[in-house]
Design goal:
YbaK protein; alpha+beta; single chain; about 160 residues; 3-stranded antiparallel β-sheet; 6 helices; 5-stranded mixed β-sheet
Length: about 160
């Protein structure tokens, strides 16, 4: 277990809620590939997405939405962050700010002061699959774990079901 995975597990232990660590092939860490290979439903998987402001630069937030939903970056998230322009953070910025690679980013063990916004649809599940901090690990948890993370806030309408889905 590497340092980030150890920090993730420590944050899980601190919640006093049940969790399961799931080892995964790093080549299968992206949500769709993981679910297809390991047999987990997409509607029970949550993507953790970091956003970065472009105007002004240097403001970040981490958002959690179901894999079957899309993050409302241009409206809802932009307003929440209070910026004029916002986009998905590039992989190198995500790694620099969180210490995690795309495909393994988790809302657990985030740096202090980083806003964590969770879509209400995530909370409606008995359990969800999250990244585990690295591309080699996933976590199966009660979504209530998320509300126990520093800076966490459950947001209505953070994500939406794409039309045609």
């Amino acid at each position: 277990m590497n340092d980030i995975e150890a920090r993730v597990e420590a944050s899980l232990v601190a919640t006093d809620l049940a969790y399961e660590l799931i080892a995964c092939d790093p080549e299968l860490a992206d949500t769709a590939a993981f679910c297809a290979h390991y047999g987990y439903p997409l509607e029970r998987s949550a993507n953790t997405i970091m956003v970065a402001s472009r105007k002004p630069e240097g403001r970040y937030a981490v958002c959690v939405v179901l894999a079957t939903h899309r993050l409302d970056v241009n409206k809802r998230v932009r307003r929440l962050l209070g910026v004029q322009k916002l986009s998905f953070a590039p992989p190198e910025i995500t790694a620099e700010v969180t210490g995690m690679l795309i495909g393994g980013v988790t809302p657990l063990a985030l740096p202090d002061g980083l806003p964590l916004w969770i879509d209400t649809a995530v909370m409606a599940n008995e359990w969800v699959i999250l990244g585990g901090g690295s591309r080699s690990m996933k976590v199966k948890v009660d979504p209530q774990v998320l509300t126990r993370m520093p800076g966490a806030e459950v947001i209505e309408g953070l994500g939406f079901v794409p039309t045609g889905s």
